[in-house]
Amino acid sequence: MKSLLITLLFVAGSLTGMAQTQSEMNKQAGQEYKEADKKLNTIYQEILKKYAANKTFITNFREAQRLWVQLRDAQLKAMYPGSAKNYGSMFPMCKANYLTELTNQRTEAIRVWLNGLPPGETCTGSVGATE
């Protein structure tokens, strides 16, 4: 009986240690978004370097990224059209999570210029056209 009580106290203490405040969750979500954005920017810069000799691609790629940023921001406004206070204390976390999701999607979409396409793909466009 005594060992059961000790075990229950240990489990209860462990669960309490895992609890987070909303502020902590907001901060964590914000950090995850910063990391996703950093990853996107790193891959973007790698693509610019790899394709530097292909000036037409670079011009178009930069324009596509600029427009994606506008789309991302518009999607965020569509998702949360009201002011931040309308969504409560969870809003910073929700916003950061949504931005992380959109940023990760964009990262995967542009990664193709670094990783290439599957073997046998015939519609390669500018992928691999580094000059």
Describe the structure.
- The protein has 131 residues and is mainly α.
- It has a domain of 70 residues.
- It contains five helices and no strands.
- α2 runs parallel beside α4.
- The chain is elongated.
- The mean pLDDT is 90.
- Keywords: Signal.
- InterPro entries: LprI-like_N.
- It holds the Pfam family LprI.
List the helices and strands and how they pair.
Layout: H1 2-18, H2 22-50, H3 55-79, H4 91-110, H5 112-115
What is the number of helical segments per DSSP (H or I, 4+ residues)? 5
Which percent band covers the strand fraction?
Answer: under 5%
Mean pLDDT: 90
Radius of gyration: 22 Å
Total E-strand runs: 0
Helix content class = over 70%
Can you tell me the residue ranges where pLDDT is under 50 for at least 5 consecutive residues? Answer: none
For the record, give the distance between the C-alpha atoms at the N and C termini, rounded to a whole number: 75 Å
For the sheet with most strands, the description reads: none
Q: What is the N-to-C order of secondary-structure elements (H for helix, E for strand)?
A: HHHHH
Structural class: mainly alpha
Overall 3D shape: elongated
Domain Lysozyme inhibitor LprI-like N-terminal: 18-108
InterPro entries: LprI-like_N
Keywords: Signal
Signal peptide: 1-19
